[in-house]
Design a protein that fits this description.
single chain; 184 residues; two-stranded antiparallel ribbon; 8 strands; binds iron/sulfur cluster
Amino acid sequence: MFENYEQFLEELEMKLKNYFEFHSDYICCKEGCSKCCEVGDYPFSFLEMNYLMHGFMKLDKKTQNIIREKIQKLKQKDTGKHFFYECPFLINNRCSVYKYRGIICRTFGLAYFISKKSDKGEPYVKLPECVKQGLNYSKVYKNGEVQVEPIKENLDTPNIINSDLAKKYNLDFGDIQSMLYWFD
Ligand code: SF4
Ligand code: SF4
């Protein structure tokens, strides 16, 4: 059912592994560090969401219920306006569906060029939020910028799902929206 998508993810992971290695001097991601899953809106395409829920169905009932409750609580807070929230799949600082996580979850922590231009007309570098918390790139972070060559690929989800790699696997990702809105 997800064979093509899983092959795509395998290739994507190889590419991202190289990027993480390229910047390994500035990266301090480790198991149990979860700040990147605590404040976000987690854009997920329909395909990614289906895969995530495929992973959810493999969890024990107790964990599923905890996640359901978290989703319900978040939905109560939702006023229809864009807001940031802790991912409901985060349990005890760990992703409960790690193998099935979304594309954005795999790129968390990297600094990369995006097509938007800065005020000076230069390519804009997207930085991980945790740079301000003394984590990734913090040792090369000064005046809102990192003093290293960023990765020269836009790793935002819309860009990845329209990439040649995604085309190679003939994937139909469907619409993208904040994770929470898939639970209507
Ligand atoms: S799905 Fe997992 S990795 Fe992605 S934001 Fe949620 S907890 Fe974090
Ligand atoms: S991206 Fe930042 S918050 Fe997330 S695991 Fe890496 S260091 Fe921790």
